[in-house]
Amino acid sequence: MGNVIAAAVVSLDGFVADTEDQVGPLFDWYGNGTVEVYGTDPGRPFKVSQASADYINTAWKKVGAVLCGRHLFDLTNGWEGVPPFGEHVVVVTHQPPTDWPFPDAPYTFVSGIEEAVAKAKELAGDRDISLAAGNLTGQALRAGLVDELSYNLVPVIFGTGKSFFGDYAGDQIRLDDPKVIEGDRVTHLHYRVSKG
């Protein structure tokens, strides 16, 4: 069984977007290098540093399913029916779309975080689940469903915005020491949630 990994690109003060859902310079590192990397869509190349490419290629190849909320699904139009990486997308929503133009895409709509993680695990098999940061991460942390954090830190301070951990207000959670990879304008920090 794979791991549930809460993942996002984040500002130094912990935000994945500003209050208007704009990412500003957070994604600049996806285009500032010379090494091309791809998720699932061959039409969406990223050009990153060699260190970032090595990290991304290792991490993304292990993902079998992406788990996101309805808000991110709407912002990206479900990545036009092509999962960003992995083979499946599980969307947490109380109102599945009725007029989405990609009804045959490998997307599943469920209503709660525990059901979503269970479905994502079923679809991913022995591969990992990438959980989009934000309110879902907060919910999954409260439920004890997160195994790892992929915190891709960009040297910018937003001051306010959408938090990596959403509205998490639970107990303290200890993390193991990070694996640290220095890219160009991003530092990849990968943590395991301590189990003991």
TrEMBL record:
Residues 4-181 form the Bacterial bifunctional deaminase-reductase C-terminal domain. It comes from the Bacteria. GO terms for molecular function: 5-amino-6-(5-phosphoribosylamino)uracil reductase activity. Transmembrane segments: none annotated. InterPro entries: DHFR-like_dom_sf, RibDG_C. This is Dihydrofolate reductase. GO terms for biological process: riboflavin biosynthetic process. Pfam families: RibD_C. It comes from Kribbella voronezhensis.
